[in-house]
Amino acid sequence: MINISELNEKKVSKKQIDVTLDVVELQDSYEKYTVLKPLKVIGELNSVGDIISLEGKVTGVLELTCSRCLKNFNYDIQLDINEKLTNNPENKDDEIIFINNDKLNLTEIVENNIIMSLPIQRLCQEDCKGLCASCGSDLNLGECKCQHLNIDPRLAKLKDLFSND
Predict the structure, then answer these.
(1) Is the pLDDT of residue 140 over 80?
(2) Residues contacting 154, CB < 8 A, separation 6+
């Protein structure tokens, strides 16, 4: 939590931020992500009128699961954050975050920004070959012994039409 009472009361117009968040895992509605290197936020809060703008950079390392081979891998976080905040309940702008006291929960803002920035398809490497659909072998480690007949299942019966049996 960051005390922003000085910004709300217009005693200062800027406040520097250099915080390491105490977060061990992030969670969205589908999976959990382990934080391997602490999330660090460096930036600035600027007050203009009843709007406080948060501009900063988040760094850290998360552990993600590869979408193709299901192995865990390290994912570096290098994320710019630009958010607008207000304590004015009459401000109805959907892009402005409402804060109802003099404490700013930076953790929630950072977690939401990180989760929104994660790639949809998470790959351990660009050319990950994934798993064999038949036997489940990791194709990154070598070819499996399965016969890969790429037959459209809708046309599989036609294969029997041309057999010599």
Answers:
(1) yes
(2) none
